[in-house]
Known about the structure:
537 residues; BirA Bifunctional Protein, domain 2; 37% helix; 3 domains; seven-stranded mixed beta sheet; Arc Repressor Mutant, subunit A; three-stranded antiparallel beta sheet; alpha+beta; flat
Amino acid sequence: MTDLAALGESLHPHEVKVLIQLGADPQTLTDEDLAKRADLEVAQVGAALGRLQLKELVAVQEEKTYEMVSLTDIGERYVQQGSPLARIIGALRVAKEEGAALTIKDIQNREGLAAGEISGIIGTLKQEGAILIASGGVIKLSETESLIAKALQDVLAKIKRNGPRELQSYDAEEQTLIQKFAQKRGNPNEPFRVDTRVIRRFALTDLGKSLAEVSVRDPHTAMSGANATAEPTLSAEVSKAQLTPEMLKDGSWRNVRFRKYTIGLSPARIPVGKKHPYREFLDLVKAKFVGMGFEEMRGPLVENEFWDMDALYMPQFHPARNIHDVYFVKEPTHSLPIQEPFLKQVKQAHERGWKTGSTGWGYAFDPMRTRRLILRSQGTAVSARTLAKKPNIPGKYFSIARCFRYDQVDATHAPDFYQIEGIVIGEDINFRTLLGLLNLFAGEVAQAQESKFLPAYFPFTEPSVELHVRHPRLGWMELGGAGLFRPEVTQPLGVDVPVIAWGLGLDRMAMVALEIHDIRDLFSADLEMIRSKRVQY
């Protein structure tokens, strides 16, 4: 047998109010009816009804589904300005009176209609027989008046005047018109919105009636201390969920019945502020490099071709320097002149090798092209600028550089990305030093369990190598390239000792470290993912 006293004490104040209203009225009530009578929001009533149904105190007695018609923002505009159908008919009438000839393009420009919008309307009017298309694409009115245009404007005005109403309240022709011009999946730019709504009417179950009948007789009686009776009593007015300082001061707590709490329940989750997992990863990478004694390099996102490519001994005819691989800046198009003697020395290195012992690329270097502005396509541009600033020898430098390249977006590619760029300068630096550092980065930064090296070619390093790591789901992924800078790079910038360099994809490193399987998730706004992901170190 159900313990009504315990059940009554467990109810939330909103549930008590809903029960009292349902018990006081023999009619079934909707959630909106209950919200008005209980002085609650509809959402509060809905939540209370859901809990009461689970406790088998309330049941749905009637459920009705209907379709409600209202105007969209586009429909509101059509009411004020006229629908495109009506505007096109009006434009054609004026043209006919003036003896002018209008093409589809003329109507589109005159009425400010989109190309996709006008083509469908012309098709509708032509099918109705209201217009004719003459030679040269000229649109003319026929003798048949457009009934659709007039009927559509009448329905728009009717809905504006009467407000949202059920679809069934309109006659058959109006319903057909509304359905034709209602928003649909893939076609949201329509004047009508048809929403399916469900009205449910609720009533007390036998158990709910047993609990509520005492409250109907005396809704202001409370169970408390010496006033407690053998019967369960509900009172929304005196039922409290929280003890307040004011109640303690004036002693009113003695006359109040408090809801019982189940202390075994888990508390509500309170999310706290935290860094985005990828931001946290980038900060940890920076901390690791600083901890290993590296100095940070910085450089601009908008770069000229000199530092991004020319200073790196990439010839001006290299395929990576066209519009399909880099983003060019529209305004301004060029930077200030390049500082000397770097421009002159790099130019000579490209053309004839300068003093490096190389024969160069053997072409006429264009000093103006070298000033063309682009979005930085590789972090190595920061390294080139650092070499020209008389770096410490020996010295080691790093940069977390955001780069931009045209690419097809998929699970491992994006048009903008972070690179961890670095150089180590010194008399005793060699290729084995580079391989040892790359192995360190793969394990410490990317948290990769497996890594491997593959031979590679870059215009600015020799020998060159690619670092690959195994992703747990995607398999082997290239992290980036590395190598020893060629003399054609270092000597024109004023450095005469060996320099090893690398540019590795931080985004792909983060995918391994964060156990993310799609590069786009690194920039996700999914709060649950942001709260749950942690960098494992």
